[in-house]
Amino acid sequence: MDPISPLEQALHSARARVLADLVAGEVAEADVVSLVEESVVQRRWWVEQWPDGAPFVAGLVAQDVQDALLERYGRWPLCPVCGSGDPHALDVDPELGADPHWVCSEAGVRVAPVGSLGAAIGGGAAS
Question: End-to-end distance of the chain based on CA atoms, in angstroms?
Fold first, then answer.
């Protein structure tokens, strides 16, 4: 059996992390999972062109899915930190970098690493 390439590892990890956050938010319906798959296909091409960008793929897939959900359904993931005011979505920080986190820009706090949103919203820790 051939070892999994670093590119494939990055793509599989990104897929798993974003799916974990979707499951935690109880929005992992089939059509939403398809959005993840579409993003992974697009990001495969991107990281093939720029292999040094592999550590950035999880954050980019999270942003792609967030943008696609906004267009089709509304904001995701909603901020679990701010208890008052209008509901707002978390952002991915850094926008292009390793170790992406969901952050609340309004409160200025890191909420959870991408892939571990369940612990922040009460859905348990993702593995």
Answer: 25
One-letter amino acid of 43: R
State the Cα–Cα distance between residues 62 and 114, nearest whole angstrom. 7
Q: Please write the tens of the pLDDT for every residue from 56-87.
A: 999 999 999 999 999 988 999 999 999 778 88
Assigned token pair, 78: 């909603």
Place of tokens 């986190």: 101
Sort residue 50 into left (φ over 0), alpha (ψ -120 to 50) or beta.
beta
Which structure tokens are listed for 39?
């993003």
CB count within 10 Å of CB 1 equals 3
Strands across the sheet with 91-93, in order?
91-93, 101-104, 109-113
Q: Output the six-digit token pair for 9.
A: 């590892």
**Cα separation of 55 and 100, whole Å?**
9
12-51 residue pLDDT tens: 999 999 999 999 999 999 999 999 999 999 999 999 999 9
